[in-house]
Protein backbone atom coordinates (compact mmCIF):
# COMPACT_ATOMS: atom_id res chain seq x y z
CA UNK A 1 0.00 0.00 0.00
CA UNK A 2 1.14 3.53 -0.76
CA UNK A 3 1.16 6.77 1.20
CA UNK A 4 -2.30 8.26 1.81
CA UNK A 5 -2.64 11.09 -0.72
CA UNK A 6 -4.52 13.18 1.87
CA UNK A 7 -1.27 13.59 3.82
CA UNK A 8 0.46 15.51 1.02
CA UNK A 9 0.73 19.26 0.71
CA UNK A 10 -0.12 20.64 -2.73
CA UNK A 11 -0.62 18.90 -6.05
CA UNK A 12 0.66 15.36 -6.65
CA UNK A 13 1.36 14.38 -10.26
CA UNK A 14 -0.80 11.52 -11.52
CA UNK A 15 2.31 9.64 -12.60
CA UNK A 16 3.40 9.37 -8.95
CA UNK A 17 0.28 7.46 -7.95
CA UNK A 18 0.16 3.68 -7.73
CA UNK A 19 -1.99 2.24 -10.52
CA UNK A 20 -3.48 -0.28 -8.08
CA UNK A 21 -4.09 1.42 -4.70
CA UNK A 22 -4.22 4.97 -6.16
CA UNK A 23 -2.14 6.31 -3.28
CA UNK A 24 1.30 7.92 -3.61
CA UNK A 25 3.94 5.35 -4.56
CA UNK A 26 5.75 3.54 -1.73
CA UNK A 27 8.89 1.56 -2.59
CA UNK A 28 7.94 1.88 -6.29
CA UNK A 29 8.51 -0.46 -9.25
CA UNK A 30 7.81 0.18 -12.91
CA UNK A 31 6.57 -2.16 -15.66
CA UNK A 32 7.85 -2.06 -19.27
CA UNK A 33 4.65 -0.20 -20.19
CA UNK A 34 5.83 2.56 -17.78
CA UNK A 35 2.99 2.17 -15.32
CA UNK A 36 4.25 2.42 -11.73
CA UNK A 37 3.15 0.51 -8.64
CA UNK A 38 3.97 0.09 -4.98
CA UNK A 39 6.11 -3.03 -4.59
CA UNK A 40 3.61 -4.66 -2.24
CA UNK A 41 0.68 -3.84 -4.55
CA UNK A 42 2.17 -5.23 -7.77
CA UNK A 43 3.52 -8.35 -6.08
CA UNK A 44 0.09 -9.03 -4.64
CA UNK A 45 -1.52 -8.42 -8.05
CA UNK A 46 0.84 -10.78 -9.90
CA UNK A 47 0.00 -13.64 -7.54
CA UNK A 48 -3.38 -13.91 -9.30
CA UNK A 49 -2.74 -12.10 -12.63
CA UNK A 50 -0.07 -11.99 -15.32
CA UNK A 51 -0.79 -8.60 -16.86
CA UNK A 52 -0.63 -4.89 -16.08
CA UNK A 53 -3.74 -3.69 -14.18
CA UNK A 54 -3.80 -0.53 -16.35
CA UNK A 55 -3.40 -1.65 -19.98
CA UNK A 56 -3.49 -5.49 -19.58
CA UNK A 57 -0.12 -6.01 -21.24
CA UNK A 58 1.59 -9.24 -20.21
CA UNK A 59 4.19 -8.77 -17.43
CA UNK A 60 5.85 -10.82 -14.70
CA UNK A 61 8.03 -10.00 -11.71
CA UNK A 62 11.29 -10.35 -13.67
CA UNK A 63 10.26 -7.44 -15.94
CA UNK A 64 9.72 -4.96 -13.10
CA UNK A 65 12.38 -2.26 -12.72
CA UNK A 66 13.07 0.65 -10.32
CA UNK A 67 11.39 3.96 -11.07
CA UNK A 68 13.13 6.35 -13.47
CA UNK A 69 15.53 8.67 -11.65
CA UNK A 70 13.66 11.87 -12.50
CA UNK A 71 10.45 10.30 -11.19
CA UNK A 72 12.19 9.17 -8.00
CA UNK A 73 13.50 12.70 -7.52
CA UNK A 74 10.02 14.17 -8.00
CA UNK A 75 8.62 11.60 -5.58
CA UNK A 76 11.24 12.31 -2.91
CA UNK A 77 10.62 16.07 -3.11
CA UNK A 78 6.91 15.76 -2.30
CA UNK A 79 5.96 17.37 1.02
CA UNK A 80 3.67 15.56 3.44
CA UNK A 81 2.41 15.71 7.00
CA UNK A 82 3.71 13.40 9.72
CA UNK A 83 1.41 10.43 10.30
CA UNK A 84 1.16 11.60 13.92
CA UNK A 85 -0.64 14.77 12.85
CA UNK A 86 -3.81 13.60 14.59
CA UNK A 87 -1.87 13.50 17.87
CA UNK A 88 -0.56 17.03 17.47
CA UNK A 89 2.59 16.81 15.34
CA UNK A 90 2.71 19.69 12.87
CA UNK A 91 5.86 18.59 11.05
CA UNK A 92 5.81 18.72 7.24
CA UNK A 93 8.82 17.27 5.49
CA UNK A 94 9.87 15.64 2.24
CA UNK A 95 8.92 12.06 1.46
CA UNK A 96 12.64 11.28 1.37
CA UNK A 97 13.03 12.17 5.06
CA UNK A 98 9.60 11.28 6.46
CA UNK A 99 10.60 7.83 7.69
CA UNK A 100 13.55 9.21 9.65
CA UNK A 101 11.35 11.87 11.24
CA UNK A 102 8.57 9.42 12.16
CA UNK A 103 11.04 7.04 13.83
CA UNK A 104 12.01 9.89 16.17
CA UNK A 105 8.72 11.82 16.33
CA UNK A 106 7.78 12.87 19.87
CA UNK A 107 4.13 12.21 19.06
CA UNK A 108 4.67 8.58 18.00
CA UNK A 109 2.66 6.04 19.97
CA UNK A 110 5.13 3.60 21.51
CA UNK A 111 4.59 0.70 23.93
CA UNK A 112 5.50 0.96 27.59
CA UNK A 113 8.80 -0.81 28.29
CA UNK A 114 7.59 -2.36 31.56
CA UNK A 115 6.85 -6.08 31.30
CA UNK A 116 3.12 -6.76 31.52
CA UNK A 117 2.02 -3.23 30.66
CA UNK A 118 -0.06 -3.01 27.46
CA UNK A 119 -0.24 0.80 27.39
CA UNK A 120 0.93 2.78 24.36
CA UNK A 121 1.88 6.40 24.99
CA UNK A 122 3.39 9.25 23.01
CA UNK A 123 7.16 9.23 23.08
CA UNK A 124 7.21 12.67 24.72
CA UNK A 125 5.06 11.36 27.59
CA UNK A 126 6.89 8.05 28.08
CA UNK A 127 9.02 9.19 31.03
CA UNK A 128 5.96 10.50 32.84
CA UNK A 129 4.09 7.25 32.24
CA UNK A 130 7.02 5.14 33.45
CA UNK A 131 7.09 7.13 36.68
CA UNK A 132 3.51 6.16 37.54
CA UNK A 133 3.10 2.88 35.63
CA UNK A 134 1.60 0.20 37.86
CA UNK A 135 4.00 -2.31 36.29
CA UNK A 136 7.14 -0.33 37.12
CA UNK A 137 9.67 -2.12 39.28
CA UNK A 138 11.67 -0.84 42.25
CA UNK A 139 13.69 -2.19 45.13
CA UNK A 140 11.82 -3.10 48.28
CA UNK A 141 11.97 -0.13 50.71
CA UNK A 142 12.20 -2.50 53.70
CA UNK A 143 15.68 -3.58 52.71
CA UNK A 144 15.10 -7.20 51.72
CA UNK A 145 16.77 -6.48 48.38
CA UNK A 146 13.89 -7.67 46.22
CA UNK A 147 12.75 -5.85 43.09
CA UNK A 148 8.98 -5.56 43.20
CA UNK A 149 6.22 -4.25 40.96
CA UNK A 150 4.10 -1.43 42.30
CA UNK A 151 1.02 -3.53 41.55
CA UNK A 152 2.39 -6.26 43.80
CA UNK A 153 3.26 -4.02 46.76
CA UNK A 154 0.26 -5.19 48.79
CA UNK A 155 1.19 -8.85 48.34
CA UNK A 156 4.91 -8.41 49.02
CA UNK A 157 6.08 -9.99 52.29
CA UNK A 158 9.79 -9.68 52.99
CA UNK A 159 9.92 -12.61 55.43
CA UNK A 160 8.01 -14.90 53.08
CA UNK A 161 10.13 -13.86 50.11
CA UNK A 162 13.38 -14.38 52.01
CA UNK A 163 12.15 -17.75 53.33
CA UNK A 164 11.30 -18.79 49.79
CA UNK A 165 14.70 -17.71 48.54
CA UNK A 166 16.37 -19.55 51.44
CA UNK A 167 14.51 -22.73 50.52
CA UNK A 168 15.52 -22.33 46.90
CA UNK A 169 19.14 -21.79 47.90
CA UNK A 170 19.01 -24.83 50.20
CA UNK A 171 17.56 -26.98 47.43
CA UNK A 172 20.16 -25.69 45.00
CA UNK A 173 22.96 -26.39 47.48
CA UNK A 174 21.67 -29.94 48.11
CA UNK A 175 21.57 -30.54 44.37
CA UNK A 176 25.10 -29.23 43.96
CA UNK A 177 26.37 -31.36 46.87
CA UNK A 178 24.73 -34.43 45.34
CA UNK A 179 26.25 -33.63 41.98
CA UNK A 180 29.69 -33.15 43.56
CA UNK A 181 29.25 -36.41 45.49
CA UNK A 182 28.30 -38.35 42.36
CA UNK A 183 31.19 -36.81 40.46
CA UNK A 184 33.65 -37.68 43.25
CA UNK A 185 32.33 -41.25 43.45
CA UNK A 186 32.64 -41.55 39.71
CA UNK A 187 36.23 -40.33 39.86
CA UNK A 188 37.05 -42.70 42.74
CA UNK A 189 35.53 -45.64 40.85
CA UNK A 190 37.55 -44.72 37.82
CA UNK A 191 40.75 -44.45 39.86
CA UNK A 192 39.94 -47.72 41.65
CA UNK A 193 39.48 -49.53 38.34
CA UNK A 194 42.71 -48.01 37.08
CA UNK A 195 44.58 -49.14 40.21
CA UNK A 196 43.16 -52.66 39.92
CA UNK A 197 44.27 -52.82 36.31
CA UNK A 198 47.68 -51.43 37.26
CA UNK A 199 47.97 -53.96 40.11
CA UNK A 200 47.14 -56.77 37.72
CA UNK A 201 49.80 -55.58 35.28
CA UNK A 202 52.38 -55.27 38.08
CA UNK A 203 51.52 -58.75 39.39
CA UNK A 204 52.00 -60.18 35.92
CA UNK A 205 55.35 -58.41 35.67
CA UNK A 206 56.39 -59.77 39.11
CA UNK A 207 55.39 -63.29 38.09
CA UNK A 208 57.37 -62.94 34.89
CA UNK A 209 60.41 -61.70 36.84
CA UNK A 210 60.11 -64.63 39.24
CA UNK A 211 59.95 -66.98 36.30
CA UNK A 212 63.00 -65.37 34.76
CA UNK A 213 64.84 -65.52 38.10
CA UNK A 214 63.98 -69.21 38.45
CA UNK A 215 65.39 -69.89 34.99
CA UNK A 216 68.53 -67.94 35.81
CA UNK A 217 69.06 -69.84 39.06
CA UNK A 218 68.57 -73.12 37.22
CA UNK A 219 71.15 -72.04 34.68
CA UNK A 220 73.55 -71.03 37.46
CA UNK A 221 73.16 -74.41 39.17
CA UNK A 222 73.77 -76.15 35.87
CA UNK A 223 76.91 -74.09 35.32
CA UNK A 224 78.19 -74.83 38.83
CA UNK A 225 77.58 -78.56 38.35
CA UNK A 226 79.37 -78.44 35.03
CA UNK A 227 82.26 -76.59 36.66
CA UNK A 228 82.54 -79.22 39.40
CA UNK A 229 82.48 -81.96 36.82
CA UNK A 230 85.13 -80.16 34.84
CA UNK A 231 87.29 -79.69 37.98
CA UNK A 232 86.96 -83.38 38.82
CA UNK A 233 87.98 -84.33 35.32
CA UNK A 234 91.00 -82.03 35.59
CA UNK A 235 92.00 -83.59 38.94
CA UNK A 236 91.60 -87.08 37.49
CA UNK A 237 93.69 -86.13 34.52
CA UNK A 238 96.35 -84.70 36.83
CA UNK A 239 96.49 -87.96 38.82
CA UNK A 240 96.80 -90.01 35.67
CA UNK A 241 99.59 -87.72 34.54
CA UNK A 242 101.48 -88.20 37.79
CA UNK A 243 101.11 -91.95 37.59
CA UNK A 244 102.55 -91.97 34.12
TrEMBL record:
A zinc finger (TRAF-type) spans 101-144. SUPFAM superfamilies: RING/U-box (SSF57850), TRAF domain-like (SSF49599). The keyword Metal-binding applies. One of its GO terms (biological process) is regulation of canonical NF-kappaB signal transduction. Keywords: Coiled coil, Ligase, Metal-binding, Zinc, Zinc-finger. Residues 199-243 form a coiled coil. Pfam families: zf-C3HC4_2 (PF13923), zf-TRAF (PF02176). One of its GO terms (molecular function) is zinc ion binding. Gene3D superfamilies: Zinc/RING finger domain, C3HC4 (zinc finger). Residues 101-144 form the TRAF-type domain. Residues 18-56 form the RING-type domain. The keyword Zinc applies. This is RNF41 ligase. The lineage of its organism: Eukaryota, Metazoa, Chordata, Craniata, Vertebrata. The gene is Rnf41_1.
